[in-house]
Design a protein that fits this description.
This protein has seven helices and no strands. It is an all-alpha fold. It has one domain. Helix 2 packs across helix 7 and helix 3 packs parallel to helix 6. It starts with a helix and ends in a 7-residue tail after the last helix.
């Protein structure tokens, strides 16, 4: 059974060493949604065009929302500086996205748009080792 993104990152966070964390991440090297999330957090070429900090939204958790990020991650391009939509429109769409996914994944998205990770023990180096070629220097 496929794990939700927040579950994968929670599993990584529970491990003690960087080597263990990297090995756990490598188990998901074919997970394009996880790769998209990690790239959004660590890759300098990914430039989010959203306000920094917490964005107010109404958490919504229907049964099955844990996996919603898998279908919604393809919309990340909407929130980039390269997209010609107005910043207000991007913010409105981002709030809709946050309200459509698990609150746990919404918190992750809120942190990666600010180029951080909720899981502070997960480093760019670990991601680069687990997902070679994902992040440009």
């Amino acid at each position: 059974m496929q794990k939700a993104i927040f579950e994968i990152l929670d599993d990584v966070n529970k491990l003690k060493t960087g080597k263990e964390k990297t090995a756990e991440l490598q188990k998901y090297s074919n997970n394009t949604t996880l790769a998209t999330v990690l790239k959004g957090a660590f890759c300098k070429s990914v430039e989010w065009d959203l306000p920094e900090g917490y964005i107010q939204y109404k958490p919504f958790e229907p049964i099955g929302s844990e996996m919603a990020l898998y279908s919604e991650a393809r919309r990340f391009y909407l929130f980039m500086k390269s997209n010609p939509l107005s910043r207000e429109k991007k913010l409105m769409l981002f709030i809709q996205l946050l309200e459509a996914i698990s609150p746990n994944d919404a918190e992750i998205l809120m942190s990666i748009k600010d180029k951080q990770m909720l899981n502070k023990s997960l480093t760019k180096k670990m991601v680069m080792e687990a997902f070679p070629g994902l992040i440009e220097e």
